[in-house]
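Per reviewer request, we include the raw input and output of the structure prediction for the construct analysed in the revised manuscript.
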Amino acid sequence: MRKIAVLLLFVIVFAECKDPGSGGSGSGGSGGGSASIGDRETVTVGSASFDMIYVQDQDSVTFPVNDDSNSNGMDDATATLTTKFFMSETEVTNAVVAEVYQWAYDHNRFDTTNVSAHNYLSTTTVKHGGQELLDLDYSYCKVNYDGSGHFTADNGYDDHPVVRISWYGAVIFCNWLTEMRDGNAANVVYGGIATNWIHTNTTEDVTKNGYRLPGSYEWEYAARYRSDSINTVSGYSGPWYTRGHSASDATTFHNNNSSGGGEPGKSANNAVGVYSYYWNGSSWTATGVTELATVKTKRANDLGLFDMSGNVREWCFTQSDSYRIYRGGDWNSSAIYLQVGGVYRDHPHLEYYDLGFRLCRTK
């Protein structure tokens, strides 16, 4: 097996403030008013909170994708986005997941009595639509259900990214968080979720302003965006875009050993990413990282987003054949996977010790 009592009141509070270090401008969407790149929404959920950052403010933006994974950094394909959106400053943490799943429990989204129920909940199993959401009985999962009505994050792990969460677990989290915010399901993004939930039947309405997973290209746009011309793809300016063979906001490519001893690639990667192995010129060498880090351990990119490369891989909504896309690299892998041009995929029901997610919301 993979891993009523107190009713808690959860309040979601939004407060926008200008990030003094950000530039750009744009007009607001849902909710009225205007917003600029770098503007923030603080979302408070019970005792936990996180920030959403406005990262895309143009009616249409075209940017480079598809790195050729060598030091030439061809990046000669493009993608175009036409949706303005916010993205969470960090990967979603254990504390936030525990609060949202607690809300689901308090609102009768689980069945704790019938092991065959599509939404069965026990100390080792949490399901919806017949799909496991979190691998509760695995050591790397730091979100717990105690069997008597309480979800919590392990002591000392509140600010670590949630892992051992399936794509299904991330998707339903988005819907539940939206319902918590609004008190109804009017702005829920994802539909097609049945008692026999099949990911290929899941629909997405990005015109609604509920929480959602990023699309693969939305993720790549946010990871590549930068406000200077260092280590960028030629032909773009204001914003510039980090080359695809590099970590998000890194000053050179991931395995640049031109100075020897893994430098300057090692230092560039270390500044922005949590990962386990760097290229020393002849072999992959340990960085000393042996475990998942708290969020905000490394430098944010120019949009103010942390861990776009490294710490945990991140689910995207985007489908690829019978799989779902994930991006970003992780703490237990080499610098190869820090590359912002790297695209990977896996079965949506799988739960890994180095795979989590971050949020988007349409403006």
